Amino acid sequence: xRPAVAxxxxxxxxxxxxxxxxxxxxxxxxxxxxxxxxxxxxxxTQNSMTIMWETSVEASSEVTYFETRxxxxxxxxxxxxxxxxxxxESKKTVNxxxxxxxxxxxxxxxxxxxxxxxxxISRVPQGPFVESQLYSLKxxxxxxxxxxxVVSSEMGGSGQPKYNVPLFKQIELYHPDFMLLTGDVVMNxxxxxxxxxxxxxxxxxxxxxxxxxxxIGNHEKFDRxxxxxxxxxxxxxxxxxxxxxxxxxxxxxxxVAIDSVTAVEYKTDESGEWVNEVCxxxxx
Length: 284
Fold this sequence. Notes:
- This protein is of the alpha+beta class.
- The chain has helices spanning 2-26, 164-172, 192-200, 204-207, 218-221, 231-236, 260-265, 270-280; strands at residues 35-42, 49-70, 84-86, 92-107, 115-123, 129-131, 135-138, 149-152, 178-181, 212-214, 246-250, 253-257.
- Strands 1, 2, 3, 4, 5, 6 and 7 form a 7-stranded antiparallel β-sheet that branches. Strands 8-9-10 form a 3-stranded parallel β-sheet, with no helix packed on it.
- The protein is globular.
């Protein structure tokens, strides 16, 4: 009988070890990696575009983009985007391995008034990855080339985010080159959830192919006693420093966005001086 007992012990030991390893493996938390905002487009120029998105957990940033060929030259339904074929041989990738939730990647060496296809990818080291579908973007037009844009505001001031869904759907039909959002796109800029509720969720489809510029309003700042706006304004847009005011050229036009909230309170701050200087410039 002793030999039989001696043979069983190693088997039990192996089974117990395997059971313990299985318990440890199953205890590893599953990483819920998702794209929760975007991708969306910022700061278009004739040869570059800034692409932003947010993920549910910290991950790397990667944008793959392609030149395109248009397939449907005739017979499109009004308001429908052109059908494009991404040219695989033109594929380029820009990546940043730094882990973050809010991602910002600039793609360069583009041609003016040209449509490209792009997708975003985020990866967790030794973990999952998430990849968007393929979207299109168009660079800024060349000088003296016609362009169109939409101006909108108060999307958050009403306190009714449901109003913004048909608004953005209607804008999609016109395919503007960009949007000017002149403030109050959220109800309370201090609240993270408001940015999704009033802006990024209703505008999800539109912003994948239509860049927007945002100038700050009192709802983004919300509290006039604050010395500066809450961090979400700076996190979710990509403007030149200091970001609350800026100017840019598009085609043959020059646009100026001012920090009206601060300018009203501080008449002699640098924002006021900056506007004076810009308006003296050529093309203003």
